[in-house]
Every structure is written in structure tokens, then in C-alpha cells.
Amino acid sequence: MVQRFSVALARLAGDEDLLIAMATMVTDDAPEVIVRLEQQLEQTEMEEAAASAHKLKGMLSTFETDSPVAELEEVVHAARGGNSRQASESFQACRVPIHELLREIAALKN
Question: Cβ(104)–Cβ(4) under 8 Å?
């Protein structure tokens, strides 16, 4: 599984222990951020949703810079612009890839 995240590992100067520690932090913290983001989008709290989406994007970008991180940037942008419909649609479009990436990250801990 470390091979899947070889680019992330290279950014960490090959430190597998650090990659695993970061995987633990992300998989522990991300579910709460996702729930909070979903609630903020539902309640059209766009400033808060932008902050949560940005936080989630940062957490995941340690491991991946393409999908779903790029799509989370769209959520951030729409939420910052006050476009609740677009923010919600963009988040819905990347929910499955987010959860798939989190499963892959969690596998690093094993």
C-alpha cells in the first residue's frame, strides 16, 4: 500500500513511519470534519463550510493532490462565493472518492 502513496512518501523524505503517523491522524480526524461539512452545507453556513472543506482538502492533500482534492477546491471556492447549491453539488460529486481515499489511507496503518 505504501507504493500507492509513493509521491506522498517522497514528499516526506521517504519516512514511512511519518506517513503512517499522518495516516492515523487523518483517518481519526477526517470523519468528524466530513460530518461537520455536511451539516454546514445543509444549513447553508457557507463561511464555515469553506473552512471545513479547506481543512479536509489539506488533510487529504498529504496523500493525494488529484481527485478528490481538486474537487474539494471547487467546494471551497463555491462556499467562499456564497454559492450553496454549487458547493453542495461539488461535495456530493466527490463524497465517494473521499471515502475511497480514506479507506486507502487507513490501510497504511495495517
Answer: yes
